[in-house]
Every structure is written in structure tokens, then in C-alpha cells.
Design a protein that fits this description.
Elements lengths: L3 E4 L5 H14 L11 H7 L5 E6 L4 E10 L9 E8 L8 H15 L4 E6 L4 H9 L3 E12 L2 E11 L7
Parallel strand pairs: 4-5
Antiparallel strand pairs: 1-2, 2-3, 3-4, 5-7, 6-7
Amino acid sequence: MKFEIAPMQPSDWPEIREIYAQGIATGNATFETDLPDWKKWDASHRQDCRLVARAGEPPFLLGWAALSPASARRVYAGVAEVSVYVATEARGRGVGKVLLQALIQESESAGIWTLQAGIFPENTTSIALHQSLGFREVGIRQRLGKLGERWRDVVLLERRSSKVGLS
């Protein structure tokens, strides 16, 4: 499948939101159950390090990736949480891997030294994707939160940059 990676634009929001809804519907992508509006989503993510995968004519989105600050504390300014979502019809075609690779490059250009991801253990595809790009399992946060009536564990993964934050 041929596609291009490009910076996310606010005009991409309707398609980003739809892909996010598809992830929510799986029950294994996020604790979120309601879709945010643009203003809320925009405020909770870094202004840089936002990417989309586009294909076709006219172009349509296959997936998106973005970073959220891990903490508001200055000491954690170089730590960010990864979000990668791929449209249902594009899964298994390498879109997520290319998005995450590009996001890693963007993050290092932005001075990020550690990326972290919290993934439900049942989402083995996402765990394998992250591990294939240098993320390591830090541990399992047991019964971290409830999704509906069910307590869910979260596998915490992190990737330390080999280029940023070395001294």
C-alpha cells in the first residue's frame, strides 16, 4: 500500500476523530469511551509531533500518531506519551509502523528523550509494533483503571532515544 506521512492539520480532525472512534470501538485501544471535540483533543496533545498517513486521490487518512506530555513538570519536558491509531481498513499494512517510525524521528527533533506507551495486554499487535521499534516493557500496571465494569491492566513500554538527552 502506498501512502505518505505528513504533518497533521486541524482540517484533518473529522477523519482523525473517525479513526479514533474505530479504536475506541475495539475495546482494546484506550480507556476513553467518548470522543472529544477538537478543542479538547488539541489541548491535550503537544502542538508538534502530530502526523497523519494519507493515500488515494482525493487523499484520505489511513491513520494518525501524536504525542501527549507525560507531565507538566519541567523535569519531564523530554518525556511524552505515544498515541498511534490506524483505520480499520488499513490495519496490517504497515501504516502503524511507518507512522511510529516517523513519530520517533519527529520526537527526537523536538528534544524528546523518552517515549512511553500504555497498552492493554490484549492488544498484542500494538505491543509487538512498539517493541519492534525499540520500546521495552517496563512493567504491567495492574488494575490501573476500569473500562466499563471491567478492571484493566496496562503494559507500560518506553523507548529511550539514542540521540537526545545523552549528557
